[in-house]
Specification:
- With 244 residues, the chain is of the alpha+beta class.
- It has one domain.
- Helices cover 30% and strands 27% of the residues.
- The strands form three sheets. It has a five-stranded antiparallel sheet with strand order 2-3-4-5-8. Strands 1-7-6 form a three-stranded mixed sheet, with no helix packed on it. A three-stranded antiparallel sheet has the order 9-10-11, with helices on one face.
- Strand 2 and strand 3 form a beta hairpin.
- The longest helix has 53 residues.
- It starts with 7 loop residues before the first helix and ends in an 8-residue tail after the last helix.
- The C terminus is likely disordered.
Length: 244
């Protein structure tokens, strides 16, 4: 039996990779790992940003739709029933500021008694973990006095029924420039304090809601939704306007 010596080059091939090859392989692995990690983080941020923007837009749209629906129920008290109201204003809108509006509404009431007194306002959200505002609707049904008369009780008094619901959360706080009012000519009413004549001339209300579900995050910017609502009382308030 003849034994042949092994080829020296073949022996070198059996010794495995060199140190340089191992270092290069480890470097490529680390580089690939870093690239995958960066891609995952960027993907997560993009998805979170898109989800937050969607949440902001959805909350803002739902809130403005809810406000529009309520504002369109505004009505003069004597347009709903012939029963007279004690101490009621002569206009559909009772009070108007940039962050609050109160008005008589054909909402949650029967024509036998009278309209409800509705208020929309922005207050600080006590349930939020971060400082933010919430849009609140309060509805006060009329109190029947008998003899063809009704009134509205003082919410501060015990026994006065006031229904409250939240229309939107995650609003910018402190609130500013939430509501703007326009007259029949389409001009904005800029009075600091609305007089009876100003209230009677309101034809539409512009609602501006700035929503940021994740407060304090510059990475996730707020979304602002603007909607102009033409009021039914833009027609009926003509009855209380002074003659030219």
């Amino acid at each position: 039996m003849t034994i042949r010596p092994r080829d020296p080059e073949a022996r070198l091939d059996d010794e495995g990779g060199s140190m340089a090859e191992l270092v290069v392989a480890m470097g490529l692995f680390v580089l690939l790992t870093v690239m995958l990690t960066v891609t995952s983080v960027l993907g997560y941020r993009v998805a979170a940003n898109l989800g937050n923007r969607t949440d902001n837009a959805t909350q803002g749209q739902l809130a403005t739709d809810a406000v529009s629906k309520v504002l369109r129920t505004a009505i003069l008290p004597d347009q709903l029933t012939e029963v007279s109201c004690v101490d009621c204003a002569d206009t559909a809108i009772v009070q108007a500021t940039r962050t609050q509006v109160s008005f008589y509404a054909n909402l949650g009431a029967t024509s036998v008694v009278g309209p409800s007194l509705v208020t929309l306002r922005v207050v600080q959200d006590p349930r939020a973990t971060q400082t933010s505002g919430q849009l609140v609707q309060t509805l006060q049904p009329p109190t029947d006095l008998g003899s063809g008369k009704y009134t509205f009780c003082n919410p501060a008094n015990a026994g006065c029924v006031v229904q409250t619901r939240v229309l939107a959360r995650g609003l910018a706080w402190p609130a500013a420039n939430l509501l703007a009012y326009y007259n029949f000519a389409g001009a904005q009413i800029t009075s600091a304090t609305f007089s009876s004549a100003d209230l009677a001339s309101v034809a539409s209300v512009e609602v501006t809601l700035t929503v940021q579900t994740v407060q304090g995050q510059t990475r996730y910017p707020a979304t602002t939704v603007v909607k102009r609502v033409r009021l039914p009382n833009s027609d009926i308030n003509v009855l209380v306007q002074p003659s030219p």
